[in-house]
Amino acid sequence: MAAATSAAVSSPAVAAPSQRAASAAARRGFVTFAGAAARPSALRSDHLRAAGRGLSSGVCTHVAAVEAPVVQAVTELEAPVVVVTGASRGIGKAVALALGKAGCKVLVNYARSSKEAEEVSQEIEAAGGQAITFGGDVSKEADVESMMKAAIDKWGTIDILVNNAGITRDTLLMRMKKSQWQDVIDLNLTGVFLCTQAATKIMMKKKKVKKLFHSLNWFAW
Q1: Are the C-beta atoms of residues 168 and 188 closer than 8 Å to each other?
Q2: 3-state secondary structure 101-135
Q3: Which end of the chain has a smaller Cβ tally under 10 Å, C or N?
């Protein structure tokens, strides 16, 4: 049996502040996340200003980091079949387009943005590739099974899975509802598990796991 191969792609590291700043923040009772400390009242305005300056470049960097290993994997296979979750916009869209234009057969998954997903599919086909769309919630096992079946029915196999779908439910910890927390866990964690499990079962039938990619497609504020 061939050795299983997997690759993980994560967000670029964020530089930590000085120890003095972090200690001072802790003494004042502020919470630090990803190395950044701020007053709760200033979080939203600070983030909005930061978004205006750096979000675009950050997304571009992240897209490039995800695209590179996935497109490299394409060159090792002949017209591979790829499932990209959350592919109607953002990083997922960019990855799906890059794969489609590189010769992949792409299943473009979406949860609600059907029009945008169809546009991605059409752009891939206009570039000479093959694509289908599938609307489904990857946190639901039945939807995941149906999605994988759609790819099998169309192309007979699955060679590459890109776990990209993800959401945020940002709010202060004291105000966060359990349902908001659960929504994030269900999609960002359980969804990855369900998709990876389903795709691996299909790949193992060929006695080979091709490629599994995980894209962190959300920003922690």
Answers
A1: no
A2: HCCCEEEEEECCCHHHHHHHHHHHHHCCCEEEEEE
A3: N
Angle at 54 between CA 65 and CA 91, to 5 degrees: 35
Instruction: Tell me how far CA of residue 44 lies from CA of 38, 57, 86, in angstroms.
Output: 10, 20, 26
**Which residues face 130 on adjacent strands?**
105
Are the C-beta atoms of 147 and 83 separated by less than 8 Å?
Answer: yes
Amino acid at 178: K
- What tokens appear for 220 in the block? 């922690």
- Please write the tens of the pLDDT for every residue from 40-83: 444 344 543 444 444 445 545 545 555 555 555 555 557 899 99
Beta strands in the chain (DSSP E): 32-33, 36-37, 81-84, 105-110, 130-135, 160-163, 211-214
CA 39 from chain centre, in angstroms, equals 30
The bridge status of strand 81-84 relative to strand 105-110 is parallel
Q: Using one digit for the tens of pLDDT, what is the confidence trace for 117-176?
A: 999 999 999 999 999 999 999 999 999 999 999 999 999 999 999 999 999 998 999 999
